[in-house]
Write a structure and sequence with these properties.
It is built from no helices and 38 strands. With 437 residues, the chain is mainly beta. It has 5 domains: 158 residues, Leucine-rich repeat, LRR (right-handed beta-alpha superhelix); 43 residues, no CATH class; 76 residues, no CATH class; 66 residues, no CATH class; 61 residues, no CATH class. The strands form 11 sheets. It has a 6-stranded parallel beta sheet, with no helix packed on it. Strands 1-2-4-6 form a 4-stranded mixed beta sheet, with no helix packed on it. A 4-stranded mixed beta sheet has the order 14-15-17-19, with no helix packed on it. The protein starts with 5 loop residues before the first strand and ends in a 7-residue tail after the last strand.
């Protein structure tokens, strides 16, 4: 092994170009960059020295020959998708000191059968061990409750004798065969994906019995459970309307329903009007997406002063006075819109409300509404977000590839976790006061 096998600049390992099976990363390395070992076809083991403090997402992704790795405690966070699709990875040891495992970190590591977690772990992100089909030994600290959605979905070797994958009171999956599912008392929370990656499809489930111990569940879990619908087409779980499968043009939501879930009426093209009881206290975002027949003469789908979608043809849109909220993705894919006038009555605008509205972009390619950056359509390689922007919305820079850096101004107070999704190849996010590496 030679130093020529490593492309290192200022303590950052950008790429490994060697062919050794057993790789020892030089002690001068402090950071391992994205895709540093991506698609290497020789590496079986990697020794990461304690000099390393940061490893970027996808650093070892698609390293198909990698079998074993030890992560030192100097690395506080195992970033997103670091080892995703390492299909021969069998064993992972994470040293004391590591505090977080990010989303998809070990997803699709089909051969992974053993993971040692330290007591220092405080958080495990979404889908961190998704579809690790051979995983049968993992010591999750008992006091760890901050575990993301889909973390152990598809890890059927972790199932108990009844087919339930339960980790620290969270039901992550079902590997049983019964279509009449009786959830055990040890479960306190249903993971969002528990029916979406199971041996029994959601559409074939006849009944689900929830114990009193279950205090938390995402209604979206039951969106595909058509057989759970009552005679009127409603799937209602604990006073939450999860999905509507009926075909009525005028829908009367039953009295007693307290909450209507995201996407509950999505793609219900037959609905032209809806009647809600006084018991409904909450309607989640995106509930009426694609319900075109509910639109008024101006193309707006408005329910209880919330604008859920726009299907009009005007390029210069004037939102009616009295609207108090614009729901998430309300104007998504309305690429023809050139301007939007928002009344003072609007107090809240959801994530991605103006995503894909390319003609709303300013001369520099930014779609900015009320100091929120919703999307970037420019062509600059080094992006500088304008001063005054206070929030970066979900998917604002999605798909912006081959961009060296994105500089954020001091005014930015909030950045959505998916703001830079699929915008990861050697992109440096420079926040106010920082300097480029």
């Amino acid at each position: 092994m030679s130093k020529k096998d490593f492309i290192i600049e200022n303590g950052v390992l950008y790429e490994y170009v060697g062919t050794d099976k057993n790789v020892i990363i030089p002690k001068e390395v402090k950071t391992i960059y994205e895709f540093a070992f991506n698609h290497t076809s020789y590496t079986e083991t990697v020794v990461i020295p304690e000099s390393v403090e940061k490893i970027y997402g996808f650093a070892f992704a698609y390293c198909y020959t990698l079998k074993k790795v030890v992560i030192p405690g100097t690395v506080k966070e195992i970033k997103h998708n670091i080892f995703s699709h390492c299909t021969k990875l069998e064993s992972v040891t994470i040293a004391e000191g590591v505090e977080k495992i990010d989303s998809g970190a070990f997803a699709w590591c089909y051969a992974l059968n053993s993971v040692e977690l330290p007591e220092s772990i405080k958080e495990i992100g979404d889908s961190a061990f998704f579809q690790c089909r051979k995983l049968q030994n993992i010591n999750v600290p008992e006091n760890l409750t901050n575990i993301g959605s889909g973390t152990f979905a598809g890890c059927n070797k972790l199932a108990d004798e009844d087919g339930f994958i339960v980790i620290n009171g969270i039901l992550f999956g079902y590997a049983g065969k019964s279509t009449d599912i009786v959830i055990p008392d040890k479960v306190r929370k249903l993971d969002d994906c528990f029916l979406h990656v199971s041996t029994v499809s959601a559409r074939s489930v006849n009944s689900i019995t929830l114990p009193d111990s279950v205090k938390d569940f995402n209604p979206f879990t039951f969106q595909d459970c058509r057989k759970l619908a009552d005679e009127n087409g409603f799937v209602i779980v604990r006073n939450v309307l999860c999905k509507y499968f009926g075909k009525d043009a005028h829908v009367v939501v039953p009295h007693g329903v307290e909450k209507i879930s995201t996407f509950a009426f999505r793609t219900c093209k037959s609905i032209s009007s809806i009647e809600l009881p006084d018991t409904v206290k909450e309607i989640e975002p995106c509930t009426f997406l694609e319900c075109r027949n509910m639109a008024d003469e101006n193309g707006f789908v408005i329910v209880r002063n919330v604008l859920y979608a726009y299907y009009g043809k005007k390029r210069n849109v004037v939102i009616p006075d009295g609207v108090e909220e614009i729901s998430s993705y309300a104007f998504r894919y309305r690429r023809y819109i050139t301007s939007v006038t928002i009344p003072d009555t609007v107090k809240e605008i959801g994530e991605g409300a103006f995503q894909c509205c390319e003609k709303l972009a300013d001369e520099n390619g930014f779609v900015i509404v009320r100091n929120v950056l919703y999307r970037y359509f420019g062509k600059e390689k080094r992006i500088v977000v304008p001063d005054g922007v206070e929030k970066i919305s979900a998917y604002a820079f999605e798909g912006c590839k081959n961009i060296p850096s994105i500089t954020l101004p001091e005014s930015v107070r909030e950045t959505h976790e998916n703001a830079f999704k699929k915008c990861y190849y050697r992109v440096q996010i420079i926040r106010y006061g920082e300097t480029a590496q």
